[in-house]
């Protein structure tokens, strides 16, 4: 199992950002990765941006061109490219890495891009501002905590959509269980309803044998789509 046929350098860069480093260090790694990021995720056959955009587009009522979307942890703009192809034109992005934002800016796909470290600071947006919010790839162990869900809901319009993804590989299973518990609690409280939870077998290529699903050489992942309930729910007590 020599890293599942991926170039060693790619494997090392991917492993570095998923290792248990503290957030400031991790953001520095992303800054440094920005220039090679798209090459590396192409080598990984990373399908999350495509799958998330397709899922959101499927749930989203027409027309799309004027709908306001927030791409959280937007990285270099991979999700924006997929959303743009599906007719979404009004995109804002936030990310914790200045290096990634610089790349995203060069795509010309975003109306506004802001630096924001999710989990430590609120989103730079007013309440009920967006028709849809996407968080693709950042919900994972040591990255964005599942406690951010209410903040994502805050900036979403009633009746608006949230599209979230996480990985289902062994080292992320504890996080995934926490995330699903938090998703379920918000559903029970009437904050949103689940439209889709789609498990995807070939999410991206595994960087180690241990992480791979039954020796396929790939890890699996999941796309969730929720709709914020149109009636604001009353806070308890």
Automatic annotation (TrEMBL):
Q: Where is the Methyltransferase type domain?
A: 70-163
Single annotated GO MF: S-adenosylmethionine-dependent methyltransferase activity
Q: Which InterPro entries match?
A: Methyltransf_11 (IPR013216), SAM-dependent_MTases_sf (IPR029063)
Leader sequence range is none
> Under what name is this protein listed?
MET27 protein
Q: Which organism is it from?
A: Hypocryptadius cinnamomeus
> Could you read off the lineage of the organism from its UniProt record?
Eukaryota, Metazoa, Chordata, Craniata, Vertebrata
């Amino acid at each position: 199992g020599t890293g599942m046929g991926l170039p060693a350098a790619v494997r090392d860069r991917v492993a570095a950002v998923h290792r248990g480093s503290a957030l400031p260090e991790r953001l520095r790694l992303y800054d440094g990765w920005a220039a090679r990021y798209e090459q590396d995720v192409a080598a990984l056959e990373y399908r999350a941006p495509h799958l998330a955009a397709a899922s959101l587009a499927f749930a989203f009522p027409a027309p799309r061109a004027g709908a306001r979307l927030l791409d959280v942890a937007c990285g270099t703009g991979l999700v924006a490219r997929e959303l743009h192809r599906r007719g979404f034109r009004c995109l804002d992005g936030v990310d914790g890495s200045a290096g990634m934002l610089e790349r995203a800016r060069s795509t010309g796909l975003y109306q506004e891009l802001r630096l924001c470290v999710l989990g430590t600071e609120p989103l730079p947006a007013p309440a009920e501002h967006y028709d849809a919010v996407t968080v693709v790839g950042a919900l994972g162990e040591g990255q964005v905590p599942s406690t951010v869900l209410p903040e994502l809901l805050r900036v979403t319009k009633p009746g608006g959509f949230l599209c979230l993804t996480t990985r289902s590989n062994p080292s992320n299973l504890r996080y995934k269980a926490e995330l699903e518990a938090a998703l379920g609690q918000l559903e029970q409280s009437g904050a949103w309803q689940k439209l889709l939870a789609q498990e995807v077998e070939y999410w991206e290529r595994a960087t180690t044998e241990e992480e791979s699903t039954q020796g396929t050489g790939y890890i699996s992942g999941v796309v969730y789509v929720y709709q914020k309930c149109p009636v604001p729910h009353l806070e308890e007590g």
